Automatic annotation (TrEMBL):
Origin species: Vagococcus bubulae
Matches recorded under InterPro entries: AA/rel_permease1 (IPR002293), AminoAcid_Transporter (IPR050598)
Protein name: Amino acid permease
PANTHER family (UniProt xref): AMINO ACID TRANSPORTER, SOBREMESA, ISOFORM B
UniProt key word Membrane: yes
Entry keywords, A to Z: Membrane, Transmembrane, Transmembrane helix
Transmembrane segments: 21-39, 51-75, 96-123, 135-153, 160-182, 202-221, 242-263, 283-304, 338-359, 365-385, 397-417, 423-443
GO cellular component, one term: membrane
Length: 450
């Protein structure tokens, strides 16, 4: 094969840099703002038992996420490669750890999120139109497939779609916040002193459980790094999109939950998955319930798009590195420069999960596993500052090393709380992640033979 032919093939496997700041910002906010803003209030209020501790949990979750985003953004700007966190972990800890992260992402994390959110969409669609339960899974499959087809049109198309759904999903949230704040509240919300509810086991256990629940709602921000290879100006736009997007998410979560708390007593919010609809009925009347349901549908649809768009880039990246079976197939791009076979693979795994059910346990398990890697990323910022001081860093985390340390403390706290409260889930998650080791050894052996 001639050098010219090799250059043509290499160029055909390069992603187009067509994405700008606002689609990247939309990917951060659109991926994070999904079902969490509507459904996590139930578990947070149930854990904390008070309005003051509920809002503190949402605030601290936002602060930890912003510090985490500002910390990880240093590596995102310094290593602006498609694959995001997989590349950062490989640079700092080697190929085994990066492979295990990629394995966990493609086998559980991304398909489980797509599956769970698609089921949420199907369930809300069924409730909106009064359909039977039998339509939930078929609708979920259609939703997942339709979003995949949109992404096959190219990064620019999926980025524009993400921006549109972000604007659409903010409209019902804005209505709830504006009219909820202007309306005379039914409940007096006391922010100070911050106390736990009488039914909880104490202040710090309640805070820990509440914070852990909010972190599930904040999850998804780091995966914009997976599309850094398609950003026109990743050094400038990636840190701005992560920090700005997370600050906007935290502000929205705080305002929405304040409206919830001033509209309904906490005992009616605690454990109530229909809290958003009940609050809207109080504010807007019966029409409000349908309005919020439509908002949930748009919100969840956009969130699925965020996970789909970023998720298919992981098996593509690992395919380029010949780390998986059928790597050459996973690394193929369609005429729009989209890894379509990797996308089909992720969709197939998601559909299997939709058919099997039980997605909550998969998502919770992966959140624990992925926070191991998040925390490793925070350590990697410090490690690479010492190991590679000459690495070009267009962006450096502010107030170094305090913000990385806060991120590490937050990560250790989340892992510790999960280990204490959900040991069986931890063991299962670590076991499934470790199953990737034989595939890693097989791929390495195959490379050695060649």
């Amino acid at each position: 094969m001639s050098n010219k032919e090799e250059m043509v093939i290499e160029d055909s496997n390069q992603l187009n840099r067509t994405m700008t700041f606002f689609p990247a910002l939309s990917t951060v906010m659109g991926t994070v703002i999904g079902g969490g803003v509507f459904f996590k209030t139930a578990s947070v209020t149930q854990s904390t038992g008070s309005a003051s501790l509920t809002l503190l949990s949402w605030f601290l979750g936002g602060v930890i996420s912003i510090c985490a985003g500002l910390t990880a953004a240093e590596l995102s700007a310094a290593i602006p490669e498609t694959g995001g966190m997989v590349r950062y972990i490989e640079r700092a800890y080697g190929k085994l750890w990066s492979f295990l992260l990629g394995w966990a992402l493609i086998i559980i994390y991304f398909p489980a999120n797509v599956a769970a959110l698609s089921i949420v969409f199907g369930t809300q669609f069924k409730n909106l139109f009064g359909l039977s339960n039998s339509v939930v899974v078929p609708i979920a499959i259609l939703v997942g497939a339709s979003i995949m087809l949109i992404n096959f049109l190219g990064a620019r198309a999926s980025g524009i779609f993400q921006s549109i759904t972000l604007v659409c999903k903010l409209i019902p949230l804005a209505l709830i916040v504006i009219f909820g704040l202007l309306r005379q509240g039914d409940v007096s919300v006391s922010l100070f002193p911050v106390t736990a509810g009488a039914q909880t086991s104490g202040f710090f256990p309640a805070l820990g459980a509440g914070l852990l629940a909010t972190m599930f709602a904040y999850d998804g921000w780091i995966h914009v790094g997976n599309i850094s290879g398609e950003l026109k100006n990743p050094e400038r736009d990636l840190p701005r999109s992560i920090a700005g997007g997370l600050f906007g998410v935290m502000l929205i979560y705080l305002l929405v939950n304040f409206v919830y708390l001033k509209t309904l007593p906490i005992d009616l919010l605690s454990g109530n998955d229909n809290a958003a609809m009940d609050v809207s009925k109080r504010i807007f009347g019966n029409l409000g319930g349908k309005l919020v349901t439509i908002g949930i549908l748009i919100s969840v649809y956009g969130s699925i798009n965020g996970y789909t768009m970023t998720g298919m880039r992981i098996p593509y990246t690992m395919g380029l590195d010949k780390q998986l079976p059928y790597s050459s197939q996973l690394a193929k791009l369609n005429r729009n420069k989209v890894p379509f076979i990797a996308g089909f693979f992720e969709l197939a795994v998601a559909i299997v999960m939709m058919l099997l059910g039980g997605f909550d346990i998969l998502t919770d398990m992966l959140v624990f596993v992925i926070w191991i890697f998040y925390t490793l990323v925070f350590f990697a910022v410090i490690k690479l500052r010492k190991k590679e001081p000459d690495l070009p860093r267009p962006y450096k985390v502010p107030l170094y090393p305090f913000i990385p340390i806060i991120s590490i403390i937050g990560g250790v706290f989340i892992l510790s709380m999960t280990l204490i409260n959900q040991l069986s889930l931890v063991i299962t998650g670590l076991g499934l992640t470790a199953l990737g080791i034989p595939f890693y050894l097989y791929a390495n052996r195959k490379k050695t033979r060649k």
